[in-house]
Write a structure and sequence with these properties.
mainly alpha
């Protein structure tokens, strides 16, 4: 779906992120996820969530801050303009001065799914 919504900027940024995950955190970006948790909200037990934040989210966010590719406009605005929720981007633009969401935001939304992919956990999709 990322390539469908965001095009080349998704593919390029995902490649950079995949290399970092594999090399630095020893996490492989799978072709298909075992669990697709694509929303920016989920419930996890405290110890599991803290492990994710410490071992994955924090290092990835620090890495993303150093790499300009993750600050590129995502192209999401053109899709939102056709939808009723367009006011959200106007509020975002007023608050940040940015005309579109950056691609890094959407990669971070995908990150928990990637991290949890190879763990032997009981995942419940509601």
């Amino acid at each position: 779906m990322g390539a469908h919504w965001f095009g080349n900027v998704w593919d390029e940024a995902l490649l950079v992120l995949s290399r970092f995950l594999r090399k630095e955190l020893r996490i492989n970006m799978p072709e298909e996820l075992r669990y697709a948790i694509y929303e920016n909200h989920f419930i996890a037990r405290g110890p599991l969530y803290r492990e994710y934040v410490h071992s994955c989210l924090d290092p990835v966010m620090k890495f993303m801050q150093q790499e300009p590719i993750f600050s590129q406009p995502s192209g999401y605005r053109k899709h939102k303009e056709r939808m009723a929720e367009f006011n959200q981007i106007n509020h975002y633009q007023e608050a940040t001065g940015v005309n579109d969401w950056i691609i890094g935001v959407f990669l971070l939304e995908h990150l928990f799914s990637t991290w949890i992919n190879d763990k032997n956990l009981n995942v419940v999709i509601l």
